[in-house]
Amino acid sequence: MPRELRITVDHDLCMGNGQCVFLAPEVFRHNENRQSEVVDPDGAPRERVLQAASYCPTGAIAVADAATDETLFP
Fold first, then answer.
1. 33-41 CB contacts, 8 Å cutoff, 24+ apart
2. Which of 21, 30, 41, 68 has the smallest CB count inside 10 Å?
3. Long-range own/partner contacts, residues 6-9 (CB < 8 A, 24 or more apart)
4. What is the pLDDT of residue 51?
5. Could you give the maximum distance between any two Cα atoms of the chain, in Å?
6. The domain over range 5-73 is classified in CATH as 3.30.70.20
């Protein structure tokens, strides 16, 4: 059974580079301030979400298991 993810974007760190939007457009989009936001945490496979988080140049994305609160990234 796949684990549900809790994904957060720290808008104090996000500079709108767009790597997450490019890698997982089903999960992330840019808001009106051109910062990333989560639209569907279950929109892409866990591996792709973790890859998108790892490509964030400012480390603005955090990923955790929604049920256990286990940190998956960073």
1. 35/9, 35/11, 36/9, 36/60, 36/61, 37/9, 38/7, 38/8, 38/9, 41/4, 41/5, 41/6, 41/7, 41/66
2. 68
3. 6/41, 6/63, 6/64, 6/65, 6/66, 6/69, 7/38, 7/41, 7/49, 7/53, 7/61, 7/62, 7/63, 8/38, 8/61, 8/62, 9/35, 9/36, 9/37, 9/38, 9/60, 9/61
4. 97
5. 36
6. yes
pLDDT, block means (10 residues), the chain with 74 residues: 87 96 98 96 95 97 96 95
**Residue 45 pLDDT:** 95
- The pLDDT value recorded for residue 2 is 65
